[in-house]
Design brief:
This protein is of the alpha+beta class. The protein has 3 domains: 79 residues; 175 residues, no CATH class; 41 residues, no CATH class. The chain is built from 12 helices and 15 strands. The radius of gyration is 24 Å and the shape is elongated.
Amino acid sequence: MATVLRMLLAEQHLTNHSDFLAAYDRCAAQLDPPIPAGYGPAKTQFYQWLSGRMVGLPRDYHCRVLVKMFPGWTVERLFQMADAATVAARAHELGVPAPDIELGTFLGAEVITSGITLVYPTFELPIQPVHTHSAAEAGHRWAFARKPRVFAADRHVDVLTALPEPETRGLLHVFTAFQRHTGIPIDIRGDRYVAAHSDRPYLSFGLMGNDCTRKYLEGAERPLFTVDGGAEYCSRFAQLELTDGSRYSSTGDYDIGVIARVRPVPDPHPDRYWMFCAGLGPRGMTGASRYLAGCWSPLQQRVGDREFVAVVGVGTDSDDTVHLEHLLIDSET
């Protein structure tokens, strides 16, 4: 859970440091005696306030301003964690369903107002003419290197855009679960578009075959996980390695699912997360999506507002036989 202060700031869209300072100065000027502009918290101090790990309380003049900004709340309560009862009560006051706020805490408070984008991977299948040697047949056939399960025509007449079946099934499973329990707006887009316009919170499905996942792994200074081996669109032989040194791969007994949450730009957007749901082996992807759809709430209770990677084991006989194998919580966030 986030702190009460962070919850209230998210409601007012004030989780950005510069926006908060403007509101802080307005309230400070209304005090008696007033506090001059420019006395607000520095950026580092502000994000420490939001982290939930601050020791003690801010200076007295900060406390005066915060009480003015949030009538009815004590300074002590502002810096406490928002428990389930607080979230439910606040949701009732705002007329927002409690599941929206709870799920918004897991996906990032920004999604409550802006929504979440679910991202599916795509790959292009060039249509190549194959000359036949049979005079009875037509002069050309259309051949594919790989047969897609689901596909749609691309804007190029000589290319098909294919959607991998496991990732598509996983996305639809999570979409159905979220839509059933929350009113948070949900958008569905392809990975190429989102990777090129990534100024948004999203939940991405797939490993190296998804441009969003690949962009994170290649661009992050310290990614929480890496993927080694395996073809670009085949995870059967790939290996997952976490920052704590643990390694996972699909075996004959079970496949591996992975759910990760990272904060791409913590300073300007502390409440924006990128999330990844993927798998190794035939059932890893769908098993991970089932675990995410059914267990996000207890997972959130364990990780709070920190970045994490959850590794789940998936039985090779059924997507439903899923268990949490390992949970890495990043101590630096």
